[in-house]
Write a structure and sequence with these properties.
112 residues, elongated, mainly alpha, 5 helices
Amino acid sequence: MRNNGIQSVRRAAAILKAFGPERPILGITELATAVGLPKSTAYRLAATLQAEGLLRQDPETGRYALGGTLHRLAGALAATEPLIHHGRPVLEALGRAVGHTVSLAVLDDGEA
């Protein structure tokens, strides 16, 4: 990990970034391995992120998934993102013109 910034924040961000479409649910061992942390550290960070609503834990399996607070934060991002603000009318018109569902994606680190 980089040497600048606060290590615990970088580690918490790494845990959140470990989740994705191909890995929407992770156990603590998988999470620790994915971010290169000891299980005990990954567990403490996951528990803190869960307490803040950024992760949720299945009470039966103990596995983690992204939490509802991230959905609220994403909504705030969408409300202030110029591309969405200006692109929505264009996409709606395109969808009506072609009679199909259309979507907008932004390339970010090789992924849409």
